[in-house]
Design goal:
The protein has 128 residues and is mainly beta. Helix content is 0%, strand content 48%. The strands form 2 sheets. Strands 2, 4, 5, 6, 9, 10 and 11 form a 7-stranded mixed β-sheet that branches. A 4-stranded antiparallel β-sheet has the order 1-3-8-7, with no helix packed on it. 35% of the residues are buried.
């Protein structure tokens, strides 16, 4: 059974940091690109990053570039999202997703239907 489990969310003050983890099981982790998304109630889901399984190439959305860093440890079947300089507008439910395609991030990594498996999400709240 394929599973993605996010952890590490919580409440933090503006300017603070959090590190999210996405632990995967049930598939050959290194063969999959992993995307990070976030969603605020009433708004569209936003794709913010993708890291390829084949060569660990990375994409970032402009909204997080320079503040967030994604990495993966294939030996641990885990992808990390290090979030620094957090802002209140970063408040959202953050989810990871796995793309069963080529193992590389698509140029349209932000397009949620490309992904085949999703975690349940973890809440990040940034207070001002």
């Amino acid at each position: 059974e394929v599973q993605l489990v996010e952890s590490g969310g919580g409440l933090v003050q503006a300017g603070g940091s959090l590190r999210l983890s996405c632990a995967a099981s049930g598939f050959t982790f290194a063969d999959y690109a992993i995307g990070w998304f976030r969603q605020v109630p009433g708004k569209m889901r936003e794709g913010i990053s993708c890291i390829s399984g084949r060569d660990s190439s990375i994409y970032y959305a402009d909204s997080i570039k320079g503040r967030f860093t994604v990495s993966r440890d294939n030996a641990k079947n885990t992808v990390y999202l290090q979030m620094n300089s957090l802002k209140p507008e970063d408040t959202a439910v953050y989810s990871c997703a796995a793309d069963e395609g080529s193992g590389y991030c698509s140029g349209s990594y932000y397009y949620a239907p490309y992904y085949d498996y999703w975690g349940q999400g973890t809440q990040v709240t940034v207070s001002s």
